Amino acid sequence: MVIDANFGYTRQKLGAVHEPDINLGNFGINTLRIPGTNGNDRLSGGTPAFLITSWNSIGNSDTGNPFQFRDNQYVANANVTWIRGAHGIRFGVEYNNAQLNHFQPQGGAFGTPRGSFNFAGSVTALSGGPAANKANSLAQFLLGLSDRSGKVVQNDNPNALRWHTWSAYVRDSWQATSNLTVNFGVRWEYYPFPRTDHGGVKLFNPATGNVLIGGNGSTPLDDGVDVGHGQFAPRVGLAYRRGSKTVIRGGYGMSIDSNNWRFFRNNWPLVSNADLSGASGFAPASSLRGETLVPYPGLFVGIPPLRSRISARETSRFPITLVLAASQFHLSSIEATSTRTTLPCSGSSWALWVRRPTLETEPYAFSLTRTSTRLLRVEAMPAARCLSNLARIGEA
After folding, report:
1. Which of 23, 105, 186, 319 is deepest in the core (most CB within 10 A)?
2. Taking phi first (over 0 means left), then psi (-120 to 50 degrees means alpha), and beta for anything else, what does residue 155 get?
3. CA distance 295 to 298
4. Strand, helix or coil for residue 153
5. 364-394 burial: b if 16+ Cβ within 10 Å, else e
């Protein structure tokens, strides 16, 4: 009998910060005097993005910058090998602990933590006339009337997730005859529901329209999600030696395609994504410096402040319905994840492999394989995009 154990630790520390830009500080607020841009920390400093159709963008339009990752991963396992007669039995257990610590507020291909403004040219185009061209988009920019504006705010730094994985297995390699070896076994894997570094994750409940915040109020730490008791994945294989030159191998196995819960990283209200458009293609979303058009009096200047009806810290069920005083905005979005069950996918495969050398140095082989994947249960709905005619993204 042989016992072996292993322990491992991995640290991922990486990031990207455009120093020449971020060292400008809150350039959008202090220098350009555009309300609502930048933020309260250094990482949201720099130049807002000005996207002008058919022209090069101005400012920092990189939606993935800046970012900082400080991730830890721990793994430990223990195994026992026991040889008894024609059987070679091996079994063991494994534990994984993953810790994600990120700063990377993202708003798709548009939003940035510094603020973003788009000038497509439609605001200065003639209604019923030719389509907007590059002259229209430049004119719209010079007027400071964006048809789309927004900003992404990460309300907590780091954006932290924690998840654990437990697994165990047993396998027997049985020398059935002098020519036949049979391997069979089963693996069990268990994926508890994730949490953050100071509570549970934010989970959208489509039945009630609320975002559940695990560990707050009456909401349990796991948001009431039942992950079951794990899954079993059987496997079997055989190897048959026919004569001295031919080996036939075959096998079947199931494996679990786990999910590392990454889709909970940017859930609202941890990350607020304001993405505002005008009431029509010819209506601006906001003004950079206060200029207005006669049909749109009271046009908001800059980006509306991100504020919610209530604080996420005051409730365990955060309503998804929001309020905004600026009535000219017709669209805003909130992204949240809804999980019905958390069981991952399972995959199964079988293979037949024959090897027969024609010469000592030139073996040939052929194989037949087939792999299939099925979703055991509905794991997670896509990120829910809740639209409202009233828009003000929540603050944590």
Report:
1. 105
2. alpha
3. 10
4. strand
5. eeeeeeeeeeeeeeebeeebbebebeebbbb
d(CA 304, CA 384): 23
Asked if residues 267 and 336 have their Cβ atoms less than 8 Å apart, the reply is: yes
pLDDT of residue 264: 85
Contact 211, 200 (CB under 8 A): no
Q: How far is CA 357 from CA 240, 245, 246, 247, 363, in A?
A: 15, 6, 7, 10, 4
Residue 266: both structure tokens together: 């940017």
Distances in whole angstroms, Cα of residue 364 to Cα of each of 39, 241, 352: 65, 15, 14
Alpha carbon distance 247, 241 (integer Å): 4
- Considering only CA atoms, give the Rg of the chain: 29
pLDDT digits (tens, 9 = 90+) for 58-116: 999 998 889 999 999 999 999 999 999 999 999 999 999 999 999 988 878 899 999 99
Closest residue by Cα to residue 271 from 152, 385, 157: 152
pLDDT given for residue 370 in this prediction: 57
DSSP 99-117: EEEEE---BTTTB-TT-EE
